[in-house]
Amino acid sequence: MKPSLYSYAVPGASHWSFRVRRGLSIKMTDVEGDANVGMLMYNPEDLLERYNAPDTLKCQHTFKLTKGHCLYSDMGRIFCSIVDDTVGWHETISGNSNAETVATRWGARDYQSDRNLWKQNGYDSFLVELAKYGLNGRDMAANINWFSKVGADDNGVLRLVQNHSKPGSSVTLRFEMDTLVVVHTCPHPMNIEAEYPRKPVLFEFFESNALEADDICRDSCAENQRGFANNMLYYMGAAR
Amino acid sequence: MTAMVRESLLNAENAVLREVVRAGDYWLKEIKKGQTFRILDLEGNQAADTLFYNADDPSERYSATDTVREQRNLYLTVGSQLRSNLNNVMLEIVADTCGRHDTIGGACATESNTVRYSLEKRCMHACRDSWMLALAEHEHLGISKRDITHNINFFMNVPVTRDGGLTFADGISAPGKYVELRACMNVIVLISNCPQLNNPCNAYNPTPIEVLVWN
Lengths: 240, 215
Prior knowledge:
The structure holds 2 protein chains of 2 kinds.
Chain A: E1 6-10, E2 15-20, E3 24-30, E4 37-43, E5 46-50, H1 53-59, E6 70-72, E7 78-85, H2 99-106, H3 111-114, H4 122-131, E8 144-146, E9 150-152, E10 158-160, E11 169-175, E12 179-184, E13 201-207, H5 222-236
Antiparallel strand pairs in A: 1-13, 2-12, 3-11, 3-13, 4-5, 4-8, 4-12, 6-7, 7-11, 9-10
Chain B: E1 17-21, E2 26-31, E3 36-41, E4 48-54, H1 64-71, E5 81-83, E6 89-96, H2 110-116, H3 127-137, E7 152-154, E8 177-183, E9 187-193, E10 209-214
Antiparallel strand pairs in B: 1-10, 2-9, 3-8, 3-10, 4-7, 4-9, 5-6, 6-8
């Protein structure tokens, strides 16, 4: 990996957003273990184009996200590729914690008493960041929860696996489009730890490596090759 | 999974509305709080791609993530409470002779069709195009592409495996199977009767559904 251009450790229970240029990669590291990163993605040139969990899952016949997968927009294009992953399973169907569930489980959010150690929730975090771009709750699609594993048994019963992500585990995203990324580090909505979890996540930005002739993401299935073809048409100027 | 099946006690003769929706068409109607409606798979193996909005404030809408998380189960069947993006219960499934419905796989769109099948299939009809026409023809509702998200695929079977795989299996629906929902708020129901020709969600043969409404 090339040297990092910029790095920032996002504190736990916080939110952030940034526009990332295609050609950059972001490595997220779960510093202490058992972190959660909620993420949404938008095309900054057309905010109506956004991360689409159903298309991402069905195009790759997967329920979990890991190395080799691509993250699709609703327009058949690929925002980014998961080029490295030491976790093995990230989920995208459970959504967010909200003020009510956090208050019920761990107590109300209270800045006056807790300052920046308040009990922030995922839904409000997204609302705050989205509003900076003229977006609101209507624009909130199903998000990714990085570092979190939610599995289903044969009857469809869902369970969050506790202590899934080990300290120092990481996942690296290679951006294939200019992308508006909105993130929070609030607890997973199904987390039932006794104490409100507050887990930092290190974000490191790199120049991406050139694609290999046999790329681990583009060439992992014919669908992803077609997704890359759609990206190519977009930047060529022959796509919606 | 052992399918949960519960038959309806309602009689079709007492329905206040009965409408057949042909494959590739949309159906958009308001259902009042307390009303019950049924989606009937007339010929079997048909997918009804469905979205719900709060009729009094359409910025509140059906949310697949809130629904599956709160019920701690991926599949929809009798007893499932369909939740909104504000985590309110919008509707409840009160009868179901199919036993399992999908809300993970999303709808087909011309754009995702290019990825799933071929770039050259971009002009084939798709659910999202039916929704786009519906919204264009009902601009007064104030619903737009922003509000189009993760839907329910009634009658569709998308099993998730323990190791995180996802498959599109043959439908478990059949002619005459139905699902029935009671509205817990005034809701706008937007159905695309799926035109997909490229996968088994319609058994490669899109067919009509019927919608029935009771007071």
